[in-house]
Model the fold of this input.
Amino acid sequence: MNTKKDSIHRRRSRSWRLLAPIGIVICLFLAACTESPQKTTEVSTVKPSSEKTAVQTTTTPSKQNVVLIVIDSLRYDHVVGQRNQEPIMPKLQRFASKSWMYQRATTQATWTKPAVVSLFTSLYPAVHNTLYGVTVNLGMEQQPSVDGVPPNIPLMAEYLKEHGYTTIGIQTNANLNETSGINRGFDEYILKSYPYGDAHEATDLALDHISVSKTPFFLYLHYMDPHHPYKPPESYHHIFGEPPQLSDTDQELIRNFTMGYYLDKVFFQLGLKSSRQFGDISENGREYLKYMYAAESRYTDDEMERLLNWLEKNAPETTIIITADHGEEFWEHGSVGHSKTVYEELAHVPLLIRFPGKTPRIISRDVELIDILPTLAEHLRLPSHEHWQGRSLLSDPPMTHEPRPIFVETRGSLPTANLFLTAVRLEDYKLIVNRNTGDKTLYYLGKTGGETTPLSDEEKERQLYELLMKHFEDNGKHPLAGSTPTRTTLDDTAIQQLKSIGYLQ
Done:
């Protein structure tokens, strides 16, 4: 294992490959279950506002610690999958065998800010309205600005702080700095922007804080490593055997992946550029990036194990939730990265919850990330909030539930990109609607190929479209639907941090 110094100063790179049969891993689980620039190197500690949430009180709350781990850009199939007959994330697989593993969890947005805000508020993006990452007119001199959570919408940390929790946030994604509003309710919110805040550094920061924290504590830890540009530590470059060899052309494109190839491809796909500046990466180069993404996932797996081991030894009565804000795509539909589509490689995310004292389970019913907060409230014996749109997974019996419609969307970070896609899935049927053009595409996910071949079924398309229209109507009627996000102009440090992860050119 590389040292902390090595992990902070190394060049990084990531990737993946789909997978050995999931059934093998599931059988394993069932056997165990019974039911950047220099300025960005500085750590900034943000003291949040003192605004409190309006929640009821309870006389019998649980005092369990709570740890929420979000692994940025982590695909579900990398939790259960293999590469070259080697498990990609073996430690997380072992954790899953001791947890409630939700096989069909869906994020509410396919890029970070709206997804995490939905997780923290139990609200769909159309209600919390915290959508735009960076707004800037390309080609014009304009200081970028960003959305923040509306101040009248309560957040998870505020909710838990109101009920006696010491709240700690360790953040490595610059999209979720203090301008996002996610820091509200945290006693300490520490941003160490990626790539300087890699998995080793993030784990160290988490251990440093919880080891001296008052209990009960709530720790939110956000790992950034599987996010592009896919540059794991050097010691992980051969962890799944020999990576594909790169041509000189691919080496040059991948060397400048985020600021060159990636943004060039994205802006062209979104119609923000009329022509490409860079060529395309070859099939062999794509396989190399998939390999490095898998290596980044393993690196995160190894570093996260240090935290999980500490908790098991020193705080065994801790509820631990592990999930992702969204997945990652690798040219399955012609795109790479995330945020531009609502296909399953982005929408389907891992969700593992270890409830102390509860028997591990594998759960196959459909759930959403907005369910995490209501589930946590019931588990801790705290009152639910009347405005939450998710449901407690503890009160939703797996054997008696009706098929549940699941929703995901993406809207362009740049308003000029004209990107607004929504999708509804009911069991194995999924309808994707382009809100700008009105185009509809129906898929049956149970078939081999999933979302590669559109399905012609007028009755099923009409059924799903009516569910989507009802979803829009319900969101529009929600008491918080008219909430206005804050708007903050970025300073030079924040701009450089966002450039390092591909959000600004």
Observations:
- The chain has one domain: 4-270+283-404+494-500.
- Residues 283-314 form the longest helix (32 residues).
- The domain at 4-270+283-404+494-500 is CATH 3.40.720.10 (Alkaline Phosphatase, subunit A).
- Confidence is low (pLDDT under 50) at residues 1-59.
